[in-house]
Each structure stands twice: as C-alpha cells, then as structure tokens.
UniProtKB/TrEMBL annotation:
Protein name according to UniProt: Cupin
Domain of life: Bacteria
Organism phylogeny: Bacteria, Pseudomonadati, Pseudomonadota, Alphaproteobacteria, Hyphomicrobiales
Domain Cupin type-2: from-to ranges: 24-94
InterPro entries assigned to the protein according to its UniProt record, in alphabetical order: Cupin_2, RmlC-like_jellyroll, RmlC_Cupin_sf
Length: 97
C-alpha cells in the first residue's frame, strides 16, 4: 500500500561524520518520506507530538508519539512514514555508521 502524499517530508541534514548521520525530518499533515530503506541501524527522537503511520511491506501501523519519545530500528527494513495527524510533526533521525 502506498500512502497518498500531499507533500514530501523535508529532511535537514544536521551532522554527518565518521560515526553518525543526523537528520531532522519535518512533516506537514499528510506528508510522507516516500519508500526507503536504511543501510545503517538508526534511532528516532520526536521533537513534537505526532500521529505517525508507518507502512512496512503493506502493513500499516499508526503510532501516537510524544515529544522526547524515541525508538530504534535495524537497517534493511523498507518502509514509508506519514504524518497522519492534523498538525505539523518533526523528529530527529540518528543513523549509526
């Protein structure tokens, strides 16, 4: 299943060195990252409260996150992320090299 995208999420690269790549992602309501797969293990830390939908191989999970909450995932999972809420949503992604 592909999300209907009203606009793409906006990535801002904050740091990229020998150990980590840190990117801030900003989503307007309905915005998506588009399908992608991480080559590195990564962690996400929410900057704002948000309602996020994650599509992994056609299985969609909707998660309500609070600012400051975090989760991590291993590399190699193809997915698409959508702001399913009615307010802008932001998180910081830290990829471990």
């Amino acid at each position: 299943m592909a999300f209907a995208c009203t606009s793409p999420a906006r990535p801002t690269l904050l740091a990229d060195d020998a150990r980590v790549r840190i990117t801030r992602w900003d989503f307007e309501p309905g915005a998506t990252t588009g399908w992608h797969e991480h080559a590195m293990n990564y962690a996400i830390v929410f900057v704002t409260d948000g309602l996020m939908s994650i599509d992994v191989d056609g299985v969609v999970t909707e998660v309500s996150m609070r600012a400051g909450e975090a989760y991590s995932r291993p590399a190699g999972i193809r997915h698409d992320v959508k702001n399913a809420g009615t307010a802008p949503m932001s998180f910081v992604e830290v990829e471990m090299k």
